[in-house]
Structures are given as C-alpha cells and as structure tokens.
C-alpha cells in the first residue's frame, strides 16, 4: 500500500491488485523501471478503497483474489469508474477471460508474461483512455491505412475494396486497436444482437480481411486471433 | 405338516422386527366403543402428564366439540396451526402435515383417526398422515371408535344399521404399540348423552338417536373389548415369539380367499381378515382370471381391483392367476403349492338349475380339497347389489349368418340332387356336414341358425308329406333333435376355444410387451438411452404418455426430458418426490394424493427405489384394471433393475478408471520429478550466484546467468502446462466444445504463439482456400498444432524449414506438420504418442515426453486420428485426420467483392 516513489508526479498511476507477493514485486520493479507511479493492494477490498481514494490511471488485477472473485471486483469497479482494467490470468481459463472482458475489463495478460508484453498492453490501455485513436479519422498500422472519413482502406498505398461487413468489422477492430475484443462484442458491434449466435460468420469475415490486408494470411501480423477469446488488431 | 416347527427365517425376521420396534416411533391408540366415552379427554390427560415431565408434546388435532372439561384439558399445549383449505367457497381448517413434520415434536396428538381429509391435503385419510408422522420418528397419540375399524364395518352395520364411511385399516391398530380402551358403561354414556355432554350435530340427530340405543352400545362395547383383547393378544404373541417360546411356532395356518367382482367378495375379504387375525395367520386374496374376465364391464373390473386393494390394505397378500373355464382345480393347485390350510369362498347365489348344470365352485372345492379346510360364507341377499350385466358377448357379424343360410341352401341342393338315389340317413349327414362347417367357421349363433334351418329344410323337402312342415313319422323327431344338439354343441365349443384364444392373445400381448422391454433394456447404453427405451415401451404398451424421473445429485427428482408439460406443475413433481421418498405409488387412481394428473409408481430395484415412473392415463382410465396395473408395476420394476444394473456397472467402471488414473499419476509423477528438478536446479544455482555479495559476478556473466534463469523458467512453464493438460485430458474432466473453426485461423494463432521458438526455422504454410470449416474445440486444436510445431522445432537443425499443410478429401480433413530433422527410428511411429517417450535423440529437451501424448488424446477426443511417419525426402511428419460431418454449416452470403 505504498505509493511509488521516484518518477515525477505527472507519470501515470498504476494500481496493482494481486495477492502473490513475488508477482507484486516483479510488477513493481517493471513498472517503476518504465517510469510509472505505483500503488499495490493484496485484496479486493483494499483494491476498491485505493481505486476510490487515488483515482489511478490504470488497474492491473489478478482474477484469483483471496477475499473476492476478481470478476466481481471488475464488475463493481466498472459501475463507477472508466479507468482501464487489465486482468492477469492463467492459460486454460479462457472462460474467465471472456467473462472479465464482458464484465468491463479492457484487456488481459496470460501468466506468465514478460515485461515487453506488459508494457505494450499498458500503453494501449492508456492510449484508449485518452481517447486518441477513437477520434482519429485516419488510422495507420504497418502498411495498412484506414481513412474513416473517406471510408477507404489502403494497403501499401493501394486502395483495397471491402464489403460493407468487412469494413464494419475492420472499423470495430480499429476503434479498439491493440485491445482484445471478444466474439460476442464483435458480433454485437457488427451484426447487432440478432446474429450474435454465429461465430463462424465472424471467422469467415476475419479470414477474408486477412486475405485482403495481410501479407501472409496464415501468419497474420495485425489481425490476430486470441484463441478461445476473440480477436485483436495488433499495433 | 409337523407341528412346532421353528422357522429360522421367521426367527430372524422377528429379531429384526424387535430391533426396529425398539427404535421406531410409538403409536398409542385411545380406543372407544362409541362417541362420548371420553377418548379425547383421556388422551389429553395422559399428554398433560408427559408435558409436565418435560416431554415435547404438541397438539396436531384435538376436537373438543365445545365440551368444557375437554376444553380445559386442551389448554397449555402448543398447537400446529391448521391450514385453511377452500371447500365450496368457504375455508375450513385442516391439519397441516408439512408444518407438523417440520416442527418435529416428540409426541403429537391426532384426534379422530378415522377422519377423511379435505381435498388438497396430501393424503385422503388422517390415518395416512399418522403413518407418515410415525415414519418421521414422531410418537403419535390418537383416538378411534370401534365402528371405524375396517374389518368390523359389516358387523357394526349389522348391529346398528348404520354404514360407517370413514374406515381405518386394522393394520393401523395393529401397528399400535399400546391400545388403551376408554370404557364407559352404556348407562353412564346414555346419561351423559341426556345431559348434553356428548357432541351431536343437529342434522345427524335422527341417526344418532338410532345409534345410541342401549342394545347397540352394549354390542359395540363388546366389540371394542374384544378388539382390544385381540391387540393385547397380538402383543403377547409377539413377546412370546421373541422370548423363544416355541408354542407359537406351531406350523401356521395360511388362509386364501377367492375374490371376484361381486359385493360379496368385499365381505369375504373382511371376514378372512378377521379369521386370519384370530388365528394369527397370514392370508392372501386370490383372483382367478378366466376367459370370462375379458367380458367383465369396467365397473366389474374396478370392483375386482378394489377387492384386491382392500385385501392389501387389510394386510393380506394378493395374487392373480390365470385359469381355465373351471377355476376349482386352479385354486386348489395354487393353495397346495403355497401351503394354504384354509380356503374362504362365498356361497354361490346362482339359481339351482344353473348350479346343477354347471356345478358350483364350492362343490368342486369341497370334493377335491383333501386336507384343506373350506369355509363358505354367505352373503345377505339384500346386500348383494345388482351387478351390471356382463359385456355383451361378441356378436358374430351378419355375414356369418348369411354363410349359415348359404350352407343350408347348398346342403339342400346337394341333397335334392341325391334324393331318391340314396338313403335318407345320407341326406342327414349332408346337413350335419353343413352345420359342422358353419359351427367351425362362424361360432355358436350361426351354427344354431344353421341347425334350425337344416331341420326346417330337411323336414320341408325330404320328409313326407313333402313341401310341408308336417311330420307324420315321429321317428324323424329324433333326427331333428340330433341336428339341433350337434349345432349347439360344436358352436359352443368353438366359441369357448375362441375366447381362450383371445385371452391367450392378451396374455401374449402382455408377455411380449415385457419381453420387448427387457430386450430393449438389455441393449445397454447410458441412462438416457435406457429411459428412452422405457418411455417407448410404456407408450406402446399402454398407449399413454409416460415420464421417468431419476434422482439428481441432490436427491431431487429430475426428468431427462423436460418438454413434458405435465412436469411444469410443481405439484406433480412434488407427488413424484413423495413416491420416491415413501416407495409407494401415489397420484391419480391411488389413495395418496389422488388429485394429481398422473399416476406415479416407484421403480423398485434390489437396492432401493431407482426413480419414479409417471403415467398419464388418457381420458378417465385410472389403471384400475388389475392386470394393467400389475403389468405397469412389472414394467416399472424391470426398468428399475436395468437402471440399477447400469448404475452398478458405471460405478465399477468409475472405480477401475480411478485405479488406472492413480497408477498413471504415480508413474507420471516419478518420471517428471527429474524433468522438474533440472530447470529448478539451474534457476536456484544461477540466482544464488547473482545474490552472492561476497563474490560479485562480472557484468557479462551476470547477463548470461539471467538469461539462463529466464530460459529455464520458460522451460518449466512448458512442462507444467503440459502436465496440467495431460492430467485434465486423462481425468476425463476435459470437455470438448466443438465449434466451426477455420484451419487457417488455427494455424495462424498457433504460429503466433510459437513465434519466439520458431525464430530459427522458416515455416512454409500451404493451405488451399477451399478448405471447409472443421468442427473442433479451437483451443484444444491450437494446442495440438503448438505441440506438433514445438516437437518439430526440437528435432529440426537450425535453419531447416518446417512445413504446415492441410487438405480435405471426402469427409476427412487432414493437417500435416513435417520437419527436416533426423526422422523417427524404426518402430517408433506408434510408441512416440505414449507418455514419457521422447524418441529420436536420447536426452532431448525436457517436457517433450508429454506433448505428443496430449496431441493424441485431444485428436481422439475429436474422433480423429493422429499418425507419425518419415517422409521420403527425410524428416518426420505428423498427420492429423479429422472427421467432417455430412452437412457443412451455412456460410455468409455476402461474397468478397473484389
């Protein structure tokens, strides 16, 4: 429960809710080395209190907390704060991840993870918090350029024709670039509620997008599959 | 039979009974000869004493009828608040069994044992409530008058002329641990009546006046005394039996009562029960099903069933056997094979002439009974209610009568042609032939017609004077008579054979039904399959809707098929639950919860009740036909046995699976401990070197140590993940969630996950765009690809390519991962998928021994196959074959617009 020291006061404040001491130590070291301010809590109760009193810029949260299910905590936090939440979870608990994302978490990290991955996710989450990508009319990643104002998509400077559904799907991913979107979230955003039970449609359109935009659709660099959870536009 | 024969089984039973007696709840009955003798008062007095010494006594029901002394006594007791049940728009209080069971006092007072509960209660009768309270371990005090005893009903009716409708089975009184006779001399009772101390409802004043006559009261008092003495006697006998006094073991009597559809049978059953109680003998009610049975109307069949049910209620056994036209021998056969010593039959009420013609059952029994005693009981002429007639005998259709006419005409023509050339006797033979043919083909009616027509035609055509019906020679009358008798005899015989054939067919139908059921059940399969077979068989045999409810994990019944609207009612499920818990039939057509829509039968097996079978009779049918009901019970029990068998075999399989798993785990544990220790050793060593303050490590070495910690930790992570995967797969807890998935996407995500490891080897991917979607669990199948890629990397020299290919032919999709490594050694193709086999290079990287075993388990869980081999160009290749279903899912319509 100590506020991090060292980095200047304007650096983003990260709240870590995690009961494992070694994990907390690792996160503290990594975050401080990258210039973030740091707050830590070992229980859900403590986490809630700190989130309310310090208004952190980002919350890193373990799903297995001693006093409460992390899913419940995520849902409760989401009731009153828009602070990005990144969930830490083990492989093989994909259902938990989906639940966490559906109940308001912004992203997840699969344990064990390295600092590189951690920092990338934190950057994406913070960027979304500032709302920079959402309003930007032009989005660029690698050799792909999406001009939302003109409704045009370019690859290597050449325009690519997308069907309306493909375009909608791409825009949904662009809007949340870097973040994982669950099947349900994508189906709802692209087809509305009616078609929400057809994940195969989603897979087929994703494949079509990859064939149009990726250099090697079988080894996608940008339109990535998070198996068992959803899709992510890697930036 | 040898006297004084101790039966070890009976002895054992007694011991068990005594043990049960010592622990079971006590029933005390305050028994009286008539209303007003003070039973309630006596009960309350005793209860008060108990209450005063600190026993938890609660009033369930006490009817004080406004008597002040009784009222005063009833104060100071806790009461179970009654339920208010609606009846004709008004609410009336009724005893709340649920609340009493929940309250669970030590003793509960239940006045008026013979009371009939109002509609909406769980049981029809209060004595059933009492039995349930006793079963729940609550002692019960109750009151009852002698005229309510089931077996004394007729006697009471004879004495007082009043038929009592509210009856209590004698078994309830026998169940009593104590019977206290509350006695009041008739003079005193009449005095009390005059003083207005006896509660008499106004509308019943007249009947009551008739009832409370001194003669009646004396007789009732005697009955009550005798009944009490009998119950004391029964206790005495029980005591003697347990104390090993042999006298009671004298070879016992066994009584048999023959019942039929008549009202007399009801009396027979009651009389037998009295006789049996006096003798302390077991007894059985027997119904012999004859060809006539099929012709009984529904009311008659219902009465037969009611009589058998009554016998069951009175504590007797019941049996239905099949017999021929004459049932005497069948009854005696049964009696001999079951050691029956006394048979009770009713005195026939047939007219003398019919008795003479057909012989009476009583005569038959008496003649052949040998050492079995026959008791003949008379019925009051007045009491014998008029029975509805038998179902009309099946009529022969009109065509059969036409056939009779044609046969006679043909016989007449043939005879006419032969007339004059042959004897008259030959012509008679022609007619006889015609009659025999008609009788054999068409039965009694047409054969009688043929006989009459033959006589007429023969007389008219061939007896002088010709073409008149006049007969001059009276010798011909003999011929006519012979023709008539021939027709009647053969016709009757044919008719009888037919009836028997019909009965045999219906028996056959039943037997075939049971056989079909047992065959279906022997097919095996899971419980869902079994239930499906049961439902199918019940539906086809009884042409009715049925439902099977089995207990779930929490002991609550659940139906496998939820679509039956019947089960949407909580009430129906509640009835089924009651049946399951009490192991008795309930619901429609039974005495318990008759308001239910369906009839529910317990499915009894050797180890207990497996579930409940519910049947919804169509229309008004209520399973009252004894054979139907019995057949249904047989179905339920046979099904229960099958379910039990399945349950046992599942438990067996589970046990052996657990043992296998245990063995597998211990092998696994011992072999992975080495693999786990190696990276741990490296991590511990490297980190301790870094922490050593006395010997600081040079910057370059420091970096190396950190890298090795990182690398070894990753290695351990892989091993642990593999271990987790394999335990989940082997334990069977893993569920395969199949979804339509694209192979390209699976390959893509697997390659992404392996990005770091694959840095040293180029990967070429060859996937045709025409690949159909495959129904797989995407997470598991990705794991297969990751493990195969991991395996390929480990065995590929730096820089050599790894290839991923896929194709589909017919209904199989194939995925191939191949490398340019050293390939598999001879004979390794199968073994490589076993656990802890590393293959190829000995001492290869840790954790590799599980990856392929995981692949195999996952692929096989999808119904697919995984094989390994060497490529012609060198290197190993792994093929995953996945089955494709016949129908592919619909794909989105919108085509990619290029």
* Overall strand count of chain A: 12
CATH architecture grouping of the largest domain in chain A: 3-Layer(aba) Sandwich
- Segments of chain A where pLDDT lies below 50 for 5+ residues? 1-5
Instruction: Output mean pLDDT of chain A.
Output: 86
Distance between the termini of chain B: 103 Å
CATH class designation of the largest domain in chain B: Alpha Beta
Q: Can you tell me the overall shape of chain B?
A: flat
Determine the CATH topology of the largest domain in chain A.
Rossmann fold
Mean pLDDT reading of chain B: 79
For the sheet with most strands of chain A, the description reads: 5 strands, parallel
Q: How many separate domains of chain A?
A: 2
Provide the CATH superfamily of the largest domain in chain B: P-loop containing nucleotide triphosphate hydrolases
Structure commentary:
The complex is a heterodimer of chains A (235) and B (898). With 235 residues, chain A is an alpha/beta fold. Chain A has 2 domains: 13-130, Response regulator (Rossmann fold), CATH 3.40.50; 134-233, Winged helix-like DNA-binding domain superfamily/Winged helix DNA-binding domain (Arc Repressor Mutant, subunit A, Orthogonal Bundle). Helices cover 43% and strands 22% of the residues of chain A. Chain A contains 9 helices and 12 strands. Chain A has helices spanning 21-33, 44-54, 70-80, 94-102, 115-130, 132-135, 164-175, 183-191, 199-213; strands spanning 13-17, 37-41, 58-62, 85-90, 107-111, 138-141, 144-147, 152-155, 158-160, 180-182, 223-226, 230-233. In chain A, strands 2-1-3-4-5 form a 5-stranded parallel sheet, with helices on both faces. In chain A, strands 6-7-8-9 form a 4-stranded antiparallel sheet, covered by helices on one side. In chain A, α4 links the parallel β4 (85-90) and β5 (107-111). In chain A, α7 (164-175) packs across α8 and α7 (164-175) crosses α9. The radius of gyration of chain A is 19 Å and the shape is globular. The two termini of chain A are 33 Å apart. In chain A, 40% of the residues are buried. Residues 1-5 of chain A have low confidence and may be disordered. By secondary structure, chain B is of the alpha/beta class. Chain B has 5 domains: 8-248, Rossmann fold, CATH 3.40.50; 252-377, Rossmann fold (3-Layer(aba) Sandwich), CATH 3.40.50.620; 419-522; 525-734, GAF domain (Beta-Lactamase, 2-Layer Sandwich); 736-883, Heat Shock Protein 90 (2-Layer Sandwich), CATH 3.30.565.10. Helix content of chain B is 50%, strand content 15%. Chain B has 27 helices and 25 strands. In chain B, the strands form 6 sheets. In chain B, strands 3-2-6-7-1-8 form a 6-stranded parallel sheet, sandwiched between helices. A 5-stranded parallel sheet of chain B has the order 11-10-9-12-13, with helices on both faces. In chain B, β14 (545-551) and β15 (557-559) form a beta hairpin. The longest helix of chain B has 66 residues, at 626-691. The radius of gyration of chain B is 43 Å and the shape is flat. The relative contact order of chain B is 0.04. Chains A and B meet through α7, α9 and β11 of A and α23, β19, α24 and α25 of B.
